[in-house]
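Hi L.,

As promised, Chaperone protein DnaJ:
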Amino acid sequence: MKRDYYEVLGVPRTASDEELKKAYRRCAMKYHPDRNPGDAAAEGAFKECKEAYEVLSDAGKRRAYDANGHAAFEHGMGGGGGRPTPDMNDIFGDIIGTIFGGGKARGARRGADIDYVMELDLEEAVGGVEKRIEIPSLAECDTCNGSGSEDGKVETCATCQGHGQVRFQRGIFAMQQACPECGGRGQVVRNPCRKCHGQGRVEDEQVLSVKMPAGVDSGDRIRLNGEGEAGPPGTPPGDLYVEVRVREHDIFGRDGDDLHCEVPIRISQAALGDTVNVPTLGGEAEIRMPAESQTGKTFRLRGNGVRSVRSRAPRDLYCRVVVERPVNLSAEQRELLE
C-alpha cells in the first residue's frame, strides 16, 4: 500500500509550496541514486519522494489527492490544474533578453518570427549546451524558388506600379494602404505554382542546431536572424527566438547565479561535529561541521555556483544545515536527548 504523500515528504497537509520544495530537496539530498550507488532501498525512497512531490507541487493534482487520496489517480479522477504556460508576448513584449541585446525587426514585408521554448537541465544551463531542434514553419517553395510562379515569371503590378502601396483621398486626408491587387507585394503571378498555389511558401519542418552559452537562466533568449518563416515572394524571412526554460533540479535551487541546497545531518553529527560530504555541480565537497550545529546554519562554498554569461567569475553555493529529528525514540533515548 502506498504511503501518504505528505508523510513521505514529512510535511503537514497545510504545507506551502515553498515548504514542499524544501522537503523534496532534503529527501533528494538524502536518497538520490548518485549519492547512494547500488542502494536499491535508497533508490526506491527517492522515487517515492519524487512521485509525492510531482503530485503535491501541482495545484490541480493536489486538490484531487486531498479529496480522494491515491484513488484520484488510480481511477482516472486526477489531473487538471497544472501550471499555465505564460504568454511570451506579455512577459517579453518585443524586447530580447538583456544579455543578448537587440529587438525584433518590424518590417511589414517579411516572414513571421518564430518563438521556441528550449527546456534545459540545470547542468546544461550552467555548462552550456548545443541541441538540435525541430520547428514547424513556412519554408520557401523549392519548385518555384519562392517566386510563386510555375514558370518563374512575375509581372510588376499595374495598379501600384510595383510599390505595393496605393494612395487614396479621404476628405482632406491622403491615405495609404496595401495594394488590393497584389496584396502589397508589388508583383503579380499569372501562372501560379501548382505546389504552393502561388504563395511561394510551403509548410515544412526546419531542423536546426542551437548553441546555448554557459550560464543562461530561465527567461533568457537568443535570436537567430533569418531562421523564422519564409516571407512572401521577394521578401526576407523572419527571425527565430529561442527562449530558455530551466527545469527544476532535484537538489539545487538557483537564486540568480548563486546555488542553494540543504544538507541533512544526524543529531549526533550536529552535537559532536563531523566532516560531511555535500554535493556540488562538479562533484562532492567536504565541509567541517562544528559541534553544536543547529538547523539553519549555512556554509558558503565559494566558486561552486554559476558562472553567468554576464560575468567571468562563478558565484557561490550555499549549504543550509537541517538537523534530522529522530523518531520512535525510547524513553531512555528521549531522556538522554533532553
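The two ends are 36 Å apart (CA to CA).

Thanks again for sending the construct details.

K.
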